[in-house]
Design brief:
By secondary structure, this protein is an alpha/beta fold. The chain has 6 helices and 4 strands. Helix 2 crosses helix 3. The mean pLDDT is 88.
């Protein structure tokens, strides 16, 4: 999932101002084929504002309503597994906020999560209780660049979830809040998907 003001194509087509690898570059050496979907939480570009907090209701809506529509569309178009063990959700920056929301609201549909460049901004006590009470296992990589101010929230969130054995923190050494760092973080996190 893209970040604030980004588009659904930033991870697949790249951006002219970044020399980041795109998803296809990261998948070159994958032995098992999988489908990557890059939806957007913006209903249209008129929802992009100069205030990133304006995205928060869109993140929540996506995690509660639209993500299930995306899954239905994937299952209608492709022959895919129905088990949550074969689904991952990852996001960068505000897309990471969406990923936290998907962990909170759709644990029955996804097993693997990667939150890049964001800590959890909700009620961590309530999230921990929900995860503790669930019979569903999950795997999460929480990451940020070492030169990205979001590293502090990522570290705090990882510490708060350290009781769960499949939660890890990854720090992209020298990484900033940009696509090159996000792609390195994603490459690391993908090593834990579907294991």
């Amino acid at each position: 999932m893209h970040g604030w003001s980004m588009t659904d194509e930033d991870f697949t087509a790249g951006r002219a101002d970044d020399k980041a690898p795109i998803i296809a570059d990261l998948m070159k050496n994958e032995k098992t084929p999988f489908i990557v979907v890059t939806p957007t939480y913006y209903p249209n570009r008129s929802f992009v504002t100069n205030i990133w907090d304006d995205d928060r209701p869109l993140n929540e809506r996506f995690s509660k309503v639209e993500v299930t529509e995306v899954l239905k569309a994937i299952k209608a178009k492709y022959r895919v597994y129905d088990s949550r063990d074969h689904y991952a959700f990852a996001g960068f920056s505000m897309g990471s906020v969406t990923t936290w929301d998907v962990l909170e609201n759709q644990l029955d549909k996804f097993r693997y999560f990667q939150m890049m460049a964001s800590g959890y901004d909700g009620d961590m006590v309530a999230l921990r209780q929900r995860l503790q009470q669930s019979d569903l296992s999950f795997d999460a990589t929480i990451s940020a660049g070492s030169n990205d101010s979001t590293i502090y929230g990522a570290r705090d969130s990882a510490r708060s979830l350290q009781e769960f054995k499949n939660v890890r923190l990854f720090t992209d050494r020298g990484g900033e809040h940009n696509l090159p760092s996000a792609m390195r973080q994603l490459k690391y996190g993908m090593t834990y998907f579907f294991k």
